[in-house]
Task: inverse folding
């Protein structure tokens, strides 16, 4: 069966808000001629070009990498640049700023609370050997299996879609939220990390880990397949075994020094010479 | 109590309740289908059935455990829902204090009723 | 720096059910809350009602006579059904929240298969069981009549 798509007219219902002139947001409609292959982001550009140049939204990479263009499109949080218009509708499209964040203007939402919570869970390697971290003498040992434990959660682009979809976030301002909690697990489970205890303190606060009751929506909407809900439940599992005193204290990965007694493979090219003068 | 301890107990209490409340539901609502735990037969709420169960020490203990576990699970759940409505720090403290007091008061009342009733039923 | 006002855009309690197209599990989450609150309300009243047995047979039968009214019967059935749902969904939640039903971390390959898909059979299974048990209960509540 051929699934030939034809160009058609789609009505964009856009939720507008200008902090300088408007008391509250209102809906505005634009009719856009949509060609097959157009993303919602392309549609917004079309509106800016042909209808209303004052429409504001945020984007940068237009290829699902930077995480700037999260919006509520037809009632579900997703990336505008990653959504084909004709995939979801050939008649009406509603577009609004991501909920659970304050609106700065039109489709631009203020993600800074998410970034602050992200920082609060210590999303970086915590180890005692500071010296080694700053001036490495080798690399930390990690097997492919170790890598797989956390790899999935590193794909997060911090677009905020999960935070917008979470039902707990819908009422609880203080809840850490799926994005920060998933990142807390990403570092805790990394075998090079030694900060489990400190990070555990950061997530078992009143509005932390245990405010997740598995609505599953964050994982369903995640445009990168990060699956925050899985990370949160696996972290609870880890804490539960901790609670039962069943976890052994893990020692963080050791340093693998430079190999000795081997020669450089002559096929590996030398790096090009410096183009600026070295001190 | 630490957050994780409270939460783990909430889960454990929930698991216990599936069993305890399950027994309770079988006793009271499947009385005409299964007829378990009803010494006088017929409907579970007949006075003779109530006395028949109330007499036994094991039933008395069952009711008291049931009461305590259900109160903990229910009120902790309510507290979670309230906390997730973005309360102020002060309001959170008040909610916790009120729920704990209320829970303890109800537990004492219900447990006293079970104990008194057991001695009454034994005497009758 | 000029600080412009931001417009609050939290979904609020209304957003638990409305204001978006949500997935199956998110509605289960909401229903779990609602049934929980319902059962708790009933339970608190229930403590007072059943404690009246201390006052003897007369009071007990008077109270039970009032509660035999069809409205209360319907209410009791609602509590029974709510319990069935809450218990079965609760078992599912325990399995999930202790990390036993969400699968292992894997490399995301499009189309993504998340933990939601992994636990979906469980979610559907317990709901089918819930409907069956609720129907069995309905037979007792509305068809059999205790003498
Ligand atoms: S523009 Fe970068 S993710 Fe959409």
Result:
């Amino acid at each position: 069966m051929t699934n030939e798509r034809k160009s058609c007219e789609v009505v964009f219902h856009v939720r507008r808000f200008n902090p300088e002139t408007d008391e509250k947001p209102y809906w505005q409609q634009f009719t856009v001629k949509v060609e097959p292959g157009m993303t919602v982001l392309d549609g917004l550009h079309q509106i800016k070009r042909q209808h209303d140049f004052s429409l504001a939204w945020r984007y940068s990479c237009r290829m699902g990498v930077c995480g700037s263009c999260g919006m509520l499109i037809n009632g579900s949080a997703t990336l505008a640049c990653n959504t084909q218009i004709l995939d979801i509708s050939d008649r009406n499209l509603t577009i609004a700023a991501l909920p659970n964040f304050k609106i700065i203007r039109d489709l631009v939402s203020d993600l800074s609370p998410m970034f602050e919570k992200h920082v609060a869970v210590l999303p970086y390697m915590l180890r005692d050997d500071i010296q080694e971290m700053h001036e490495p003498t080798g690399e930390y040992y990690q097997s492919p299996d170790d890598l797989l434990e956390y790899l999935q959660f590193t794909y997060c682009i911090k677009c905020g879609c999960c935070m917008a979809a979470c039902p707990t976030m819908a009422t609880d301002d203080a809840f850490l939220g799926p994005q920060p909690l998933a990142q807390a697990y990403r570092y805790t489970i990394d075998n090079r990390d030694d900060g489990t205890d400190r990070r555990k303190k950061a997530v078992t606060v009143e509005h932390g880990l245990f405010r997740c009751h598995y609505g599953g929506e964050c994982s369903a909407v995640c445009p990168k397949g990060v699956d925050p809900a899985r990370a949160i439940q696996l972290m609870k599992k880890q804490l539960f075994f901790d609670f039962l005193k069943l976890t052994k204290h893990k020692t963080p990965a050791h340093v693998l020094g430079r190999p000795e007694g081997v020669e450089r493979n002559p096929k590996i090219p030398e790096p090009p010479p410096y183009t600026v003068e070295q001190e | 109590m630490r957050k994780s301890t409270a939460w783990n107990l909430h889960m454990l209490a929930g698991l216990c309740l599936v069993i305890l409340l399950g027994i309770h539901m079988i006793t009271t609502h499947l009385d005409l289908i299964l007829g378990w735990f009803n010494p006088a037969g017929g409907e579970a709420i007949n006075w003779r059935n109530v006395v028949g169960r109330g007499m036994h020490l094991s039933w008395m203990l069952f009711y008291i455990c049931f009461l305590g576990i259900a109160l903990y699970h229910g009120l902790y759940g309510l507290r979670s829902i309230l906390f997730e409505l973005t309360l102020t720090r002060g309001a959170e403290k008040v909610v916790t204090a009120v729920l704990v007091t209320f829970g303890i008061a109800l537990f004492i009342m219900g447990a006293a009723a079970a104990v008194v009733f057991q001695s009454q039923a034994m005497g009758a | 720096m000029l600080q412009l006002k931001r417009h609050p855009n939290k979904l609020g309690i209304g957003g638990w059910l409305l204001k978006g197209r949500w997935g199956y599990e998110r509605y289960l989450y909401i229903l779990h809350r609602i049934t929980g609150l319902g059962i708790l309300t009933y339970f608190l009243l229930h403590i007072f009602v059943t404690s009246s047995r201390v006052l003897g047979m007369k009071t007990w039968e008077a109270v039970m006579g009032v509660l035999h009214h069809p409205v209360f019967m319907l209410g009791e059935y609602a509590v029974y059904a709510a319990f069935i749902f809450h218990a079965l969904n609760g078992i599912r939640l325990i399995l999930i929240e202790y990390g036993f039903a969400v699968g292992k971390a894997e490399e995301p390959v499009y189309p993504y298969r998340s933990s939601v898909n992994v636990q979906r059979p469980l979610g559907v299974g317990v709901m089918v069981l819930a409907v069956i048990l609720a129907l069995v209960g309905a037979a007792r509540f509305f068809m059999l009549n205790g003498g």
Q: What stands out?
A: The longest helix of chain B spans residues 89-123. Chain B has a mean pLDDT of 85. Residues A 59-62, 64-69, 79, 81 surround FE2/S2 (inorganic) cluster (CB under 6 Å). Chain B touches chain A at residues 2-5, 7-8, 80, 83-86, 92 (CB under 8 Å).
